[in-house]
# Entry
Amino acid sequence: MSDVRAVVLAAGKGTRLRSEEYGMPKVMREAAGKPLLHYVLRELSFLPKEDIVIVVGYMAGTVMESFPGYAFALQQEQLGTGHAVMAAAPALEGFTGTVIVCYGDMPLLKADTYRSLLRSHAQQGNVCTLLTGTSRIPLPYGRVLRDEAGNFVRIIEDRDCTPREKLIQELNAGVYAFDARALLGSLGELSRAGNVQGEYYLTDVPEIIRRHGGRIGIYCDELNEQILGVNTLEDLKTVESYCRNE
# Structure
């Protein structure tokens, strides 16, 4: 795995989790006695710590002190997932391998799933490979649009979906494998225009790569609870129940 690095997005405040009341950032909220970020880093432990870049923001020092040995990047403002990866770009400068991008508040995603994504990415010779899947749990995730041949077209965030697009069952997990050079080259083309939140969406990067002729692949699986992210107190309770039963 010497040609693989990971970027873990962990800068969020966690307003809906009432994190300020608990005096800790979102990824430090605990499930079954461990921070959410602990579980993510445990499943990424097939990579050396120094090859994992954690993007921090709110209460950055707390995260950095709790997870020594990792590389860190500071996201001063939270302007979306694409903006978070922009913050990590200097740490990837000169790297020519594969970059996994994932979330620090998605603690149930397993190492086998990350490895399967990487394997699919390498075997198909993709420039970008998306992790997608179905879930019996209703989730407000982006939908994956494919053409008639089943090829990737683009991702539409849940909040931007039309009623018809909301019926699509294939969900974007928000986890990707990228060719590092293509990822870094695409960040400058991201725009805040054209979406409800006015943010830089990482989900726009695959479409940018495709426009430039890069091969986009999809690794699709039945992911269910693996792709549960923690945004609310109810989410935290749900995730904790799975963590306790490991």
About this structure: Residues 4-244 form a domain with the Spore Coat Polysaccharide Biosynthesis Protein SpsA; Chain A fold (CATH 3.90.550.10).
